[in-house]
Amino acid sequence: MALTKLVKVDLVTTDAFTGVFGVVNASAISDIVATGATCIWSGTGYTVTCTFDGTDNAEKLLNAQKFQGWLADKLQPILGPNSNQKKAFELFKGYTMAKLHEEVGMVHTGGTANTALISIAVA
């Protein structure tokens, strides 16, 4: 029996982790799409919506695209055939908002540092 690839997703509101999380089945991901100021990843029974800020629409889209690439790279090891996942993968474990912005390369040129990621919601 194959293990379900669970991912713990820390929620973000107003540019900060909330301390609340959602859990999604990563093996059911059908899309990770960056468009406008959002990066949406969805699977059977859920949608994760990430919203980004920037000085203009181009910077918002660029932040969404950078996050999209980072997310795909982060999830790939747990989705591969050699994954031996024993518990939920904690997507943001060990991250501060500053560390996440730096690693992903997100910027809000005209705003306060580390405010490019506005929100993450799971539905």
How would you describe what is shown here?
This protein has helices at 57-79, 97-104; strands at residues 6-13, 16-25, 29-35, 38-43, 46-52, 89-90, 117-122. It is an alpha+beta fold. The radius of gyration is 14 Å and the shape is globular. The two termini are 27 Å apart. A hairpin with a 2-residue loop joins strand 3 (29-35) and strand 4. The longest helix has 23 residues, at 57-79. It has one domain. It has a four-stranded antiparallel beta sheet. The protein has two helices and seven strands; from the N terminus they run E-E-E-E-E-H-E-H-E.
Topology:
Blueprint: E1 6-13, E2 16-25, E3 29-35, E4 38-43, E5 46-52, H1 57-79, E6 89-90, H2 97-104, E7 117-122
Parallel strand pairs: 1-6
Antiparallel strand pairs: 1-2, 3-4, 4-5, 5-7
Reported for the largest beta sheet, the result is:
4 strands, antiparallel
Q: Identify the strand order in the major beta sheet.
A: 3-4-5-7
> Using DSSP, what is the number of strands?
7
Shape: globular
Number of domains: 1
What is the share of helical residues?
Answer: 25-40%
Distance between the termini: 27 Å
Q: Point out poorly predicted stretches.
A: none
Q: Which sequence of SSEs, written as H and E, runs from N to C? A: EEEEEHEHE
- The helix/strand class is alpha+beta
The oligomeric status of these chains comes to single chain
User: What is the number of helices?
Assistant: 2
Strand percent estimate: 35-45%
